[in-house]
Amino acid sequence: MTNLSNIVEILAKQALGGANNQQDTNSGVGGLGGILGSVLGQLGGATNQQSNAQGGLGGILGSVLGQLGAGQQSTAGVGGSKASSLLIAVLPLVLAWIQKQGGLQGALDKLRGQGFSSQVDDWVSTGEGDNLAVNPQQVQSLFDDQEVEQVAQETQMPKQDVYSAISSVLPQIIDALTPQGEQTSKTEANADIQQVLGLVSGFLKK
Hints:
Layout: H1 4-19, H2 31-44, H3 48-53, H4 56-71, H5 79-89, H6 91-100, H7 104-113, H8 117-124, H9 136-139, H10 145-155, H11 159-177, H12 186-205
Organism: Acinetobacter cumulans
Protein name: DUF937 domain-containing protein
InterPro entries: YidB, YidB-like
């Protein structure tokens, strides 16, 4: 097992912490947040108490993504909330990108080939300390601009903010996928990626 589910829950709880006081009273909230928010009520009987019983990742992801749309309705005082929620919104984009490279090993090779060798070595290592950062301009060449534009439209956020979120999430995801460093099973990592992506796409299909 990798730590992917753990890092997703941490990111989601950060976003929930910033958005907890926001009430989604607008049933017309559109985009990714609105879709997942409306699905959350169908998951286990439409009560928030039951989302905890639904357990874990599904309830948390649905809650935070549902509140992402609500956060866009106000232009004041929700900067932190919106930024935290955007980290969750780009999560499927980052995981899908890893899959497109042929899985975790392919993604690591791609990153190293693009000049990120020192960062990748740091993210994969099991040492203490924060992950080395990458800036939004560096990740622009890695991700499909149209896909980033779609996330920007769905979340009603500037495209540059989406790239900033990707640059924040990418190191955490690679770190979470390699808890045993280079010895981490790439097969397990790819299975965990598929599981989380399946969960998110399951929300979107309902």
